[in-house]
Specification:
By secondary structure, the protein is of the alpha+beta class. The chain has two domains: 135 residues, Fructose-1,6-Bisphosphatase, subunit A, domain 1 (Fructose-1,6-Bisphosphatase, Chain A, domain 1), CATH 3.30.540; 110 residues, D-Maltodextrin-Binding Protein, domain 2, CATH 3.40.190. The protein has eight helices and 15 strands. The strands form three sheets. It has an eight-stranded mixed sheet with strand order 4-3-5-6-7-8-9-10, sandwiched between helices. The protein has a five-stranded mixed sheet with strand order 12-11-13-15-14. Strand 8 and strand 9 form a beta hairpin. Helix 1 packs antiparallel against helix 2 and helix 5 runs parallel beside helix 7. The radius of gyration is 17 Å and the shape is globular.
Length: 260
Amino acid sequence: MALEAELALAHRLADAAREVIRPLFRTGLGSERKADRSPVTEADRAAEEAMRRLLKAEFPRDAVHGEELGATAGNSGRTWVLDPIDGTTAFMAGRPIFGTLIALVQEGWPVLGVIDQAILGERWVGVTGTPTTFNGTPVRTRMCPSLADAALATTGPHYFDDHDGEHFMALAAKTDHKRMVMGGDCYNYATLALGQLDIVCEAGLKLHDYAALVPVVEGAGGVMCDWNGEPLHAGSSGHVLALGDPARVEDVVEALACRH
C-alpha cells in the first residue's frame, strides 16, 4: 500500500507530540477529570493540538478523531485517529510506559499505526502490507507453543466489569500466571510486537485506544481481534485481544468462552 506521504506525516505528528510531552514529564503537572472520571493534563491537550495543526495543513480533507478534542468531519473517506497520551495515569506517575498513538483509518479499517514513547525515544510503525519497524528496524512477534507457556498482559483488572472480569480470569487461569503483567496501556502491545509478551487482553477500549495498535501488531506477525476472534475495525465493541502467535487465537477465544 502506497502511503509514503501519510507515513512521513505520521512521523512528523509523533515528533510534534514528543516536543510537547518531553518538557512536561515529571514536572508535577496538574490534572483534571473528564466526564468518564479519567484524568487529562495540559500535555494531553497540547500534544493533540500540535498534531491537529499539522493534519489541517497537510490533509485538510481527512477527518480527525482525537481522544481529547473530539471529531472533525472530513470528506475523503479517511480518518486520522489520535490519542496524544495513552496511559495518562502512567505519565502522571512519572513512568515512561505511556505512548502517543497515531492511526490512519480508511473506510473503517486501520491501515497505518504509530506507537511513540517520547521519553525513551522508542517508535513502532506499522503499515498494512509491510513489516512493522521499531526505531527503523523490522521486528517480529514470538511463537507461543501453548497457552500454558503464554505471558499475558492487561492494563488492570479494575478496567473490567464483573462479567468481563470473570472471562478474563478464565483466560488467565490457562496462562503462565507467574509471568502476568499488569499496567502498561499501549506499551504492552508495543512490547508484544517485539516478542516480549504473548497475549494482551482488554475490554472497554475506544477507537483511539486500539486503532494504531492493529497495523503495528499485525505487521510484526501477530494478530489483533475481538474476543470472538473477529478483526478489529472502527465499529468494534472494544473487547480487544492481541496475540503474538496467530496459532493461539482459537485457544484464547475458547478460554474466554464469551460471545459479544
